[in-house]
Amino acid sequence: EGAVGTVDLSQRNRFVGIKHKNLGTVKAGKFDTYLKTAQGKTDLFNDFTGDIQFTIAGEDRVNNAIGYESPSFKGLQFNVLSQTQDVAAKATNGTSLSVVYDNKDIGLYSALGVNKSIVGRSALFGTAREGEGIRFAVGYTVSALNVNAIYSTNENVNGNDGEKAYLLGAAYKLGDVVLKAQYSIAEADDEAKVAVDGSTEKSSFSLGADYNITSKTRAFVWYTTLEDVKKDAVVPVANDVEETALALGVEHKF
User: Fold this and answer.
1) Which of 115, 121, 144, 192 has the smallest count of CB within 10 Å of its CB?
2) CA 138, CA 147: separation in Å to the nearest integer?
3) What is the average pLDDT across 227-236?
4) Higher pLDDT, 1 or 11
5) Is the sign of the CA dihedral 220, 221, 225, 226 positive or negative?
6) Distance between CA atoms of residues 60 and 152, nearest Å
7) CB-based contacts of 236: which residues, under 8 Å, 6+ apart?
């Protein structure tokens, strides 16, 4: 919230567009890249301390974007985004695209997202950068069990400061209760080139339980540990930072 009587919505998805059942959707404004949305629902601890944004690069929402989202054909869909960069940023115009296969009949979700020249987040380096990235996400549900995985790469457009990230997660439904766990880790490709404000490795482990009160309301308790391994570029001595967090809450979707 900003000044008294005002609400800051500048960081939310904001766009205008046209949607057609058979032709797809065209939209323009500020919204999530298609590499980001390729995660689908594979992040079991989204929007809290266990969110993948802390260990996986590419969780970006970009300005000046025009996007096209195709209709789904037998579970298959493709999306493409073009971003015009601010001249002052001295960055190349960016592109983000994804191919998604979502077949609820067999419980399979898979998606491949690609970013080219998108100015956005790295997991290991402290500032936004013009980067190239790939994200592959897959989720499979059989009976009461859901398992998820993500593989991600990201590097500066000049080829430096590369990183790889992995995620494994699982959820098991017992009546109205969902038990879940998730582990993710990001690692620098070349530790010797890690900047002073960067990290050689970040990892996150979360355990939690959701209780579905109704179809739109749930209570939850989640526990997360985060570890950030830093290395000074001049004196290569590890300096680990560890954090723990507990989330308790009730969520209602309108």
Assistant:
1) 192
2) 8
3) 67
4) 11
5) positive
6) 14
7) 191
